[in-house]
Amino acid sequence: RAMLRVKRDGEISDVMERILYNGMLSGRSLEADRFFYVNPLETVSGLSGEQPGFTHALPQRPKWFGCACCPPNLARLIASLPDYAYDEDQGGIAIHQYIGGKIHTDAFGSVTIEHESLYPWDGALRWTVKANERFTLSIRVPGWAGEGARLSIDGVDIALGDVMEDGYASLTRDWKGESLVLLTLPMKARRLYANPRVRDNAGCAAFAWGPLVYCFEGADNPAPLCMLRVKREALPRIQPFDPNLLGGVRTLKIEGLRLSMPEGVLYREEPPQEEDITLTAIPYYAFANRDSKDMRVWMPEA
After folding, report:
1. pTM value surpassing 0.85
2. How far are the Cα atoms of 14, 126, 216, 225, 261 from residue 184, in angstroms, in the given order?
């Protein structure tokens, strides 16, 4: 928040969003009764949390800690979310995060803004602005949206190229009565790559949907996960919203391979057999809420 007040920069807000929807949410279980101190990008049964060098990356969230400073900090962060979502200065009001609710300010006369959406499961974002003053409304357009975002006010399309500045669409106008601002984001599954200098991620890909990072868990895929690969040319497919899975999520499907060798063979000159398989990924924040299984975010490509 302090950095955004020094310079309003969409890259800062994008990082904030990635933390809120992934690293922050994954720190607690879906029932909010277990907590992580470390958010691992991979867990392996019999290794994570047990073997020397891997005791910090637990496969399951503990119920409590001897020094439990992070759980109350998490509660404090949730209580302060409005301060991360909205901000105002002498020039106007900025919307950093898409969190539903209503705000009111008297800094520019009487201004009320109400936000409605199903974000992050849907990219249709709606703000109702009630005001009779001139000010600037700045709305962050996430970097992951690319050039596919669309903006309109009261049904009139706004050319984003004319109003974008440092990742924000700045709308300066005389607001009169009630106005409807719509931002439509291109929600699609995306494949991500790390710099190959990151040795553990070299040759691997990760997947995302909107602001959500996805992971592969043993509860949905055959174990061990180290025997699985994603096909490099395969297109990830987002699935319909399932209200009965992990509190309500959209899973991701992608075609891959399962490698194998005959039982008892450790090394041989022939490569492993390859079996076509459809892999399933879930939002990273929801992992480790079922039986203790392997998990990984970065999956090797083939």
Report:
1. yes
2. 17, 9, 28, 36, 48
